[in-house]
Amino acid sequence: MSAAETAGSAGESSRERELTDDEKHLAKLGYSQELSRSWSSFSNFAISFSIISILAGCFTTFGQAWNNGGPIAISWGWPIISAFILIIGFTLSELVSAYPTSGGIYWWAAKLGGPAAGFFTGWLNLIGLLAVTASVAYGAATFLDLTISTISTSWADGYSLTRVFLIFVAILALASVLNIFSGHLLAVINNISVWWHVAGAAIVILVLIIVPPTHQSLDFVFTERINNSGFSSGAYWFLVLPLGFLLTQYTITGFDASAHLSEETQGAAEGAAKGIWRSIFYSAIGGYVLLLAFLFAVQDPQGVSDGFGAVDVIFGQALPDGWHFLILLISTAGQLFCTTACLTSASRMTFAFSRDGAIPGSRWLSTVNKTTRIPANAVMFVAVIGAIITLPALKSIGGVPVAFYAVVSVAVIGLYLSFLIPIYLRWRIGDAFEAGTWTNGAKYKWMNLVAVVEIAIISVYFVLPFTPAGVPFSDEFAWSSVNYAPVLTIGTLIVLAIWWNVSAKRWFTGPKNTIDDAVVNAFDD
What we know:
By secondary structure, this protein is mainly alpha-helical. The protein contains 25 helices and 2 strands. Strands 1-2 form a two-stranded antiparallel sheet. Helix 9 (115-149) runs antiparallel to helix 22 (399-429) and helix 9 packs antiparallel against helix 24 (485-507).
């Protein structure tokens, strides 16, 4: 190469690259582009769709709705609760369009309500994401164990909680490796996950339509009530049935992943906004058809009483072993996709919250791998915490379902309360809110209010005892039946309040700029 060519090449490499619209928007919010922006709008939708995962929640928490309400908790409860969740999704879509950052939920709260709002929102969101990642991974381990048991008598005979826990740890390790390896690989995995969920659910539905010898009537599916909770029939409509709604509220959650991955999404102001509401809408439709197929396939309603394995009982009643195995295999694979996506979302939230100094060890947790541009330390942190908080599953205290549903409740309450804060703050700020390219227009006035009320109501219900034995000071009370979700939720809020007042309010100032303030101010001029 000649001296002139060398000089020309050097001059060209030193020239500043023109920022993309996404990078300009991110710079306006105070951040430089650290993560690799390699996700398409479809990939952004795919991760929320994968985390919602009708092949996970519909299978693992079906028993909660069956025992607390029965078929009508599903046939009527699912579409009604889904409609409310879709409204919540629309409110979050508007927020992510205005503020497409990895911190998402907590960033919006801090922007609209100040550092304290951001601090509490961030911790609630992080706790919810950690709990949902752990619960999905444990559900996947349980279903993988069930799947193998259908084709191996010796494996079934050797069942133990220790074995399931070891499978759970292996699943977390595998998901961690996939998360750390490549951001582009994650996008591809989530794209495949969408088609697996669509095709897999379709196969399950067709099998349950064609193979079972008989099907239940429309009257059974849409009017039958079941109360296996232990509470009196007089409490059915106001206590028992709402507890069954945990199926819908838990399954259709985690869609905030579209916000957490917005810094890695091209055209994020539109793509992430659509990713949230579309993932809810399509999951609601697919999940409803799938759940109706479960209900119609029931052969012996009296035999479907096992909370955690209720759907497995239905498949065992209605299908030969081969078809039974196929359905469990499809669900298990979907749950593995879901676990990987949950870990991705939780790690990005951890990265963003740490980037702003809110988590102990923030400097380490916010480190991004220079080669892959992935927050690998945050990925490992989420996996390890997930394993630790699931350690009680090694003991059959109260039975695995009680512990599982308590963790599920913590996930739902943590996530939805973290949604409530920015939704309310956006409603309060009114027309002064600077909307992005995707907006609800004037409809925010009722949509945000409806979303806040729905979240407040379900948060109260899901801290209530699941059975009479869990009611404090009652004759039947037993510690093994306690729903410890309120202890964890209220305890966490108390700890956060003390931490904030004693220390955090002195050093946590909300989102920090990672680029020069002059650059941020230039966008405001």
